[in-house]
Amino acid sequence: MTETTVSDQKAAQLSAIEESGWGQPFKFLQPRNVAFWVFLVGVGGGALTMFQFFGPKATFYAPALTWGVLLFGLYLIPWLLLLRHHNRFTAQPAGLLATGFVWGGVAATFWIALPANAALLEIWSKVGGTSFAADWAAGLTAPINEEWGKALGLVLLIGLAPRLVRSAYDGFIIGAFIGLGFQVFEDLLYVYNGATQLYGADQIGSSLRIFLIRGAAGIVSHALFSAIFCAGLMWVLGRTRGERRVLRGVLTMLMAMVFHFAWDDMAALSGGGAAAAVLPFVIAAVELTALFYVLRHAARQERAWTVALLTPELATGAIDPPLLDAVSGLRKDRKAYRKHLHSRRKAGHRLEAASDLARELARSNGTDSPAVTHARAELVRLQS
Questions:
Q1: What does the alpha-carbon distance between residue 314 and residue 373 come to, in Å, rounded to a whole number?
Q2: Are residues 271 and 364 in the same domain?
Q3: The pLDDT value given to residue 76
Q4: Dihedral of the CA atoms 97, 98, 102, 105 (nearest 10)?
Q5: Are the C-beta atoms of residues 362 and 20 closer than 8 Å to each other?
Q6: Radius of gyration of the chain (CA)
Q7: In this predicted model, which residue has the larger pLDDT, 42 or 341?
Q8: Rounded-to-integer distance, Cα 237 and Cα 174, Å
Q9: Closest Cα to residue 112, out of 137, 144, 145?
């Protein structure tokens, strides 16, 4: 390998670290940042609305709320494991993702969506009549108020961490966390409303029914909508070199809103009958296909950064070409690497160790810090 090649690889590595912002810490407390105060106003207003909504009858409906919190708290665990798996390319800090979750759960749900939906639903009733509103008002309301309300959280996180929130993939992951927060807190609203509709009878049974229905529907609900919508928004904003795609971004955002509309107005779209039983599965299949399509395209920049960051490690022996392809690749690349090693366990250990090395290189700005040296030695040990 020539000296020029080594120099070029190092320059590309440093450029990837700078452009991606990987390794930068997230600082929430920023009193001189307007985004910080807007975030506090939104979450504070949402919390106040939440207490006003639940407060007067919270004691009477405590069994339903307690079971709702417990069930949907457990529901969070597989979601967080899934999103942690996808948060592997230039991974976002946990604090930033938690901040997005809080915005989605408290501010977007109670400060924006709850009052805005009530107002717009009333307008649709006056414009189209009671029957029209019953069929179509939900789908004509929620995709506007809720998707933009959740996306405001992404905009605020750009203001709070401009170096960290750069790519469409960042928007995808952060949007999923914001949508997950909205989804869980909205489900608690459904638990509460279900208990009130039964006047407090069978609160535990009611909570379990809501959990089963909303939990199953949640696979293709707000986390999916927001992941797609926020990836599109980042393409429109184009915060990293060469990634601005306005038309693609607008179409992606509209696609998320159409999915939201179709899910909320599924009964009206099916027209009843046998179609009502089939349509949810058709919509879910289309949504999941679109989700993976957006994910693949959004990850391109992040994958390129990962390649640039780890390519200099080929010379150290810590990384070999098949491992580089796998750690920066898609599912098919990781599957090929497992076949290459004839061991899922060994492949998993090496992929995790390579990701650790990439993270430490980013944190040290490409220098051989003690953490980098340790991560590199661990990879060499696993390779041998």
A1: 15
A2: no
A3: 93
A4: 70
A5: yes
A6: 23
A7: 42
A8: 15
A9: 145
Residue 7, in any domain of the structure: no
Domain end: 242, 274, 302, which one? Answer: 302
Is 374 found in the same domain as 238?
no
Residues in the chain: 384
**Total domains present in the chain:** 2
Q: Indicate whether this model's pTM tops 0.90.
A: yes
On whether both 204 and 87 belong to a single domain, the answer is yes
Contacts of 218 (CB under 8 A, 6+ apart): 75, 183, 187
Pick from 302, 330, 356: which residue ends a domain?
302
Q: What does the longest C-alpha to C-alpha distance in the chain come to? A: 77
Asked if residue 64 is part of any domain, the answer here is: yes
* Mean pLDDT (whole number) for 207-223: 90
Q: Answer yes or no: is 195 within a domain.
A: yes
Q: How far apart are CA 64 and CA 166, in angstroms?
A: 41
3, pLDDT greater than 60: no
Rounded to whole angstroms, how far apart are CA atoms 154 and 174? 7
Rounding to the nearest 10 degrees, give the CA dihedral for residues 226, 230, 233, 238. Answer: -170
Q: Is residue 257 part of a domain?
A: yes
Place of tokens 């007067």: 56
Q: Are 60 and 199 contained in the same domain?
A: yes
Residue 74 in tokens: 């457990």
Q: Is the dihedral of CA 141, 210, 229, 250 positive or negative?
A: negative
What does the pLDDT look like over 305-340, one tens digit per residue?
999 999 998 888 889 999 999 999 888 989 999 998
Q: Collect all residues with Cβ–Cβ distance below 8 Å to 93 and sequence separation of at least 6.
A: 25, 26, 164
The tens digit of pLDDT for each residue in 65-107 reads 999 999 999 999 999 999 988 888 878 999 999 999 999 999 9
For 85, the domain range is 22-302
Q: Residue 261's closest CA among 142, 104, 114, 175?
A: 142
Q: Which residue spans within 295-356 are E strands per DSSP?
A: none
Q: How many CB atoms lie within 10 A of CB 296?
A: 12
